[in-house]
Specification:
The complex is a heterodimer of chains A (about 160) and B (about 190).
Chain A (H helix, E strand, L loop, with lengths): L8 H10 L4 H9 L1 H23 L5 H46 L1 H15 L3 H32 L1
Helix pairs in contact in A: 1-3, 2-3
Chain B lengths: L6 H11 L9 H23 L2 H17 L7 H26 L20 H13 L3 H11 L5 H8 L3 H19 L4
Helix pairs in contact in B: 2-3, 2-4, 2-6, 3-4, 4-7, 6-8
C-alpha cells in the first residue's frame, strides 16, 4: 500500500512557513514525494494567503454589528407579528362562520335553495355519474393533482 | 398616553428591543472576535467559492448566523471552528444555487485581481495558483486551505467540513497530490 504520510511532514511544513529549509530537510524533500508535495502546496498557499490578507477589503466590524442588529430587529418584528396575524385570521373565520349561520337560519331564499339541492341529490347516483362522465372526472382529478406538484417543483428550483 | 398602547404593541416593542440580546456575544466581544477572524474567513470564502463578490456577501451572512447561533463555546478554537463551519455550509448552499442558475459558469474567474507587489513574478505565480486551485473540487480546496493557510488540525478540518476524521488523511493526501501536480504542470 502506498504511504500517505511521512514523519517529516510537519518539519517540512514548519520550514516552508519560516522560509528556512535546513540542508538535511532539503535533501529529504527532493527524495520524498509526500514532502515534496507538502513543500510545493504549503508554499503556494502561504503566498496566496499573504496576498489575500493584504488585499482583503472587509467591512468594518461596527458596520457588520449594526447591520446584524438591524436584521435581527426586522426578524424580531416579523416574528412578533406572526401570532397576532394567526389570531386575526381565526377571529375573521369565526365571524364569517357566525354570519353564515345567521344568514342560513333567517334567509327564506337560502332554505328553499337547500331543499331544491337536497331533492336533486336524492335522485343522484354516483355510480351512474362515473359511468357516464368517468373519463372527464379522471382527467380533472389528474390535472388537480398534477398542477400543484408542477408549480411546487418550478418554484422550488428558483 | 399609555392607554393608546395595546398589549400586543408593548410585547412587540419588547421583542424588537431585545433583538440583539439573542446574540451569542456583546458588541465589544464581537468586534474583537471579528477583527481576529474576518480576514481569514473572507480569504477562505474567496478560495472555496472562487468569487470575491460571493465571498463579500457570505462574510456578512456568516457573522450574522454566528451571532444568532444558540451555542456556548468552551474555547476560542471551538468558536472559530463554528464560524468556519457556518461559512462552509453557506458556501455549499451558494454553490448549489449558482449551479442551478448558471450550470456552466467557471469558478475562480474573479480572484486573480491581486495587487502587484515588488516581486515581478508574483502576479503570474498568483494566477497559476488560482488556476490550479480552480481545477480542484470545492471540498479539496477547503481541505487544503484550512490545513495550510489556517493551520487547522485534521480533527478541526473534519469538524468544519462535516467529514469523518479517519477519512481526512487520505483526502488531504489526494487533494495535495492533485494541487501539486497542477502547480508543477504535471497532468
Amino acid at each position: 500500500m502506498k504511504p500517505i504520510e511521512c514523519e517529516f511532514e510537519s518539519d517540512v511544513l514548519a520550514a516552508v512557513l519560516q522560509s528556512r529549509m535546513p540542508e538535511h530537510l532539503r535533501a529529504h524533500v527532493e527524495a520524498c514525494a509526500i514532502c515534496s508535495d507538502v513543500a510545493a502546496v504549503a508554499g503556494a498557499i502561504d503566498d496566496a494567503r499573504e496576498e489575500m490578507r493584504a488585499s482583503a477589503a472587509i467591512p468594518d466590524s461596527g458596520r457588520v454589528w449594526w447591520v446584524s442588529q438591524m436584521r435581527a430587529r426586522r426578524e424580531a418584528t416579523k416574528a412578533a407579528g406572526r401570532p397576532i396575524t394567526a389570531v386575526q385570521v381565526i377571529a375573521l373565520a369565526c365571524a364569517v362562520g357566525l354570519l353564515g349561520a345567521c344568514f342560513g337560519a333567517t334567509s327564506v331564499w337560502f332554505q328553499s335553495a337547500l331543499r331544491r339541492a337536497e331533492s336533486t341529490l336524492a335522485g343522484f347516483s354516483a355510480a351512474a355519474f362515473l359511468t357516464e362522465h368517468g373519463l372527464i372526472v379522471l382527467a380533472m382529478a389528474i390535472v388537480l393533482l398534477l398542477v400543484p406538484g408542477v408549480v411546487y417543483l418550478a418554484l422550488a428550483r428558483d | 398616553m399609555f392607554r393608546d398602547l395595546t398589549f400586543t404593541d408593548v410585547s412587540r416593542a419588547e421583542a424588537v428591543d431585545d433583538a440583539s440580546a439573542g446574540f451569542v456575544m456583546d458588541e465589544d466581544a464581537f468586534r474583537a472576535f471579528y477583527e481576529r477572524t474576518a480576514r481569514g474567513v473572507w480569504a477562505y470564502l474567496v478560495r472555496v467559492t472562487g468569487d470575491r463578490q460571493h465571498a463579500d456577501d457570505l462574510l456578512q451572512e456568516t457573522f450574522y448566523r454566528f451571532l444568532r447561533t444558540a451555542a456556548t463555546y468552551d474555547s476560542e478554537a471551538h468558536r472559530r471552528n463554528s464560524l468556519y463551519r457556518i461559512a462552509t455550509n453557506l458556501a455549499r448552499d451558494a454553490r448549489r444555487r449558482s449551479l442551478i442558475r448558471a450550470p456552466f459558469s467557471l469558478p475562480c474567474t474573479d480572484i486573480e485581481r491581486v495587487p502587484s507587489g515588488d516581486d515581478g513574478g508574483a502576479p503570474e505565480r498568483s494566477a497559476d495558483f488560482t488556476r490550479a486551485m480552480s481545477r480542484l473540487k470545492p471540498r479539496e480546496r477547503a481541505i487544503l486551505w484550512l490545513a495550510y493557510a489556517e493551520g487547522a488540525s485534521h480533527r478541526e478540518i473534519a469538524d468544519v467540513l462535516g467529514l469523518s476524521p479517519g477519512s481526512l488523511k487520505a483526502m488531504l493526501f489526494r487533494a495535495r497530490r492533485r494541487l501539486a501536480s497542477f502547480l508543477g504542470g504535471r497532468p
